[in-house]
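Thread: magnesium ion complex, take 2
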Amino acid sequence: MSTQAAQQDDLAAVIGLEVHVQLETDTKIFCGCPTEPTEEPNTNVCPVCLGLPGSLPVLNEAAVEAAVKVGKAIDADIPRETRFHRKNYYYPDLPKNFQITQYDEPICQDGELDVSVEGERRTVRIRRAHLEEDPGSLQHVGGGIDTATHTRIDYNRAGTPLMEIVTEPDFRRPTEARAFLAKLEEVLEYLGVFDSQRDGSLRVDANLSIVPAADVRDGEEMDPETLESANRTEVKNISSHKGAETALAYEEARQKNLIRRGKAVEQETRHFNETHGSTVSMRSKEAEKDYRYFEEADLPPLQVSDWKERIDIPELPDARRERFVSEYGLDEESASKLTSTKQVADFYEDVASSFDPDLAATWVADNLLGELNYRDMAITDVAGRLDEFTRLVELVAGDEITTKNAEEVVLRKMLDEGKTPDEVVETEGLGKTDAAAVETAVREAIDENPDAVEDYHAGEGGALNFLVGQVMQKTQGSADPGQVNQLLRDELAD
Ligand code: ADP
Ligand code: MG
Ligand code: ZN
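Output below.
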């Protein structure tokens, strides 16, 4: 082993994530303002979300239901009673100068999520997941956060329900953190409580420290003292999975370099520069006491003990993938593709209920998702047209059009021109020619090409292919080549 490789091995990274996700509800968490984004700033606001004196918060039941669904999905404990606290800090996006959040009795505690990274399955422990309100959004004009000439504030986002999901420091590599975020999003979308397409719907704070490699053993819990004593940095407000991976990889290299040069890592909050893929120091890390948490007296404690039984959640991606393998006999790869979103999985099951499951898998996983992907589209973009795709599968299954035409002509024109499959079949003349017409074409091809017939009888292999080609031309590609081949042989044998 080279000296450098030995050095690479003696230090290890420890990573923990705090993930903020917006919950999809019609109205904000403590007032009746709509959460639907609008172009016009400061229009979806009221005295409550602007924090005007005398206004009182009223908890949105839908946000609590969404949180309970998340709790069930991550197998968390949901306490008998949950409470809200004020987290005090002064910042322009927070008009009340405190954020209503949860502190010592969060709605979800001690959960977990299975993630597979490079084929290896890991269980990531989730310490807590709590409800809180989103602050407003700041728009820095004329530069970044540190160089702007001035900043605009939009309170439309203020009061959007958020869930903050805090993992234990169970990740060892930036790629694992990224895989976790992808899995978390997948599960949240299955639950119907989250929209990944929405701008800023997921924001990550990524914590990383470096410890002696000898203190880390895969799959084993870290010693709390080691964790406590390691100086860590928290990179705030990263808006994508890839960004989280990049920021963590940067931090891992930066901290390891400091340690190798005998320097100390500062415990601090850092900012991710997305353009450069680097992190910069923002401020020393605030401690819990800086926030002066105290109980939110305007919201009574909420009894949630029976909500867990009352609220149902759909079958989740892992379970569904396993069922697709056992019930439909699919391979792991197709089953994974087909369960990647709830919409795709629902659509697949719909098609598989009327047609052969393998045919349905080919059509949904390979053809439809492939063509959508090629066009940078998602299943949600064609959500209202799923009947048309079922009709296309029906045309193929009923042998009314050839597979080749269905894939290369009908499906593509459906997506590019917005036509229905029957319209494409009609305008392109793709309906399979009936048996009599194929026979006529076979007779004609023989009559018109005596040389080829002679070559065929002389044993020249290419002659038959030439004749098949002639028939296919006459039938505009709508005949079945295998059948044409057989018909020609029969005809020429007489
Ligand atoms: P704080 O109260 O300072 O925010 P917490 O103990 O609540 O700190 O942990 C916040 C996040 O930091 C969690 O996601 C946790 O997994 C992570 N974390 C804790 N210790 C470490 C460490 N030594 N290295 C990396 N991440 C850590
Ligand atoms: Mg924190
Ligand atoms: Zn409001």
